[in-house]
Amino acid sequence: MNGKTILVVDDEPPIRYMLDLKLRQAGFSVISASNGQDGYTLACEHRPDLVVSDYQMPVMDGLEFCQQLAADPETEGIPVVMLTARGHKVPPAELERTNIKCFLDKPFSPRHLIVQIKELLQLPSDESNPVDDADLSAA
């Protein structure tokens, strides 16, 4: 364990399950939510080190969720990796009001996601703990 907690926010149970599995294999603690509103509540309660969020979700989408995180002094410093449908773009003016540090198009490589997370958290890469590189895709 590296002592870091990742909050996964995605409305698709298979994606949440696979991210939970891969992130735990990589040494992270994981908490998860199925929409931005629940994700925001968990972020306030647990103050994760990083968030992985889907963009398209019910109740509160990923962009609104990230804007709310950035607007709250308690959560404003939490970096976010945003998962998006291919070709989806966030307008620069909207992006400025978030802590989104990178975007990954679905389907994505779990290995690449973990590399991005470790870079954002300034953690060393651990080549002795490889992650299966099977893509995770969304319906």
Fraction in beta strands: 15-25%
Kindly state the mean pLDDT as a whole number?
88
| Biggest sheet features | 5 strands, parallel
Radius of gyration: 14 Å
**Could you please say which CATH topology applies here?**
Rossmann fold
Which CATH architecture? 3-Layer(aba) Sandwich
Report the CATH C-level class. Answer: Alpha Beta
Q: Strand pairing plus helix content: what structural class?
A: alpha/beta
Q: Spell out the CATH superfamily.
A: Response regulator
Poorly predicted sequence stretches spanning 5 or more consecutive residues: 133-139
Q: How many structural domains in the coordinates?
A: 1
Helix content: 25-40%
The rounded distance between the terminal residues' Cα atoms is 31 Å
How would you describe the shape? Answer: globular
How is the secondary structure organized here?
Elements (H helix, E strand, L loop, with lengths): L4 E5 L3 H13 L3 E5 L2 H11 L3 E5 L7 H10 L8 E6 L6 H4 L4 E7 L3 H11 L19
Parallel strand pairs: 1-2, 1-3, 3-4, 4-5
Helix pairs in contact: 2-3
